[in-house]
Write a structure and sequence with these properties.
Length: about 140
């Protein structure tokens, strides 16, 4: 919805890949990753930004409204199966959000965050998971 009575499609693309290696009958490891991008046309950006950039948000002087973003992740998973139907695994993953907004804005309350001035910036998250699985 671009506010002009026409449909404005968001373009998105992504790619993923993974590689699994069996070290022996008991151990295996997987390396995986992905990259995705989302792009809006100019009319859709203008509509989104007009609704987002309101006086109540008190945006900073260096504020830039651009709802486009990229998301990428990279992970490694290692599994050990000492006996049939019992697997121990450990996984570590990195997740990156490359967002295109800049500056700061006052954002209203959204659980669990209070009303405050927030800075727009890229974000990284790391994940570690340990798992034990028994199949019956």
């Amino acid at each position: 919805n671009g506010g002009d009575g026409s449909l404005h499609l968001t373009e998105a693309f992504g790619m993923r890949g993974a590689f699994n290696h069996n070290w022996d009958a008991y151990w295996s490891s997987s390396l995986y990753g992905s990259y995705s991008a989302v792009r809006h046309d100019d009319a859709a950006k203008a509509f989104i930004c007009a609704n987002y950039t309101t006086p109540a948000k008190a945006v900073s002087v260096d504020y830039v409204c651009n709802p486009d973003f990229n998301v990428s992740q990279l992970g490694l998973l290692t599994r050990w199966t000492p006996v049939k139907n019992l697997t121990f695994s450990a996984e570590v993953q990195w997740f990156h959000l490359d967002q295109k907004f800049q500056g700061t804005a006052v954002l209203g309350p959204a659980a669990p965050k209070p009303t405050a001035r927030y800075e727009f910036r890229d974000q990284d998250t790391f994940h570690l998971q340990v798992r034990v699985q028994r199949n019956f």
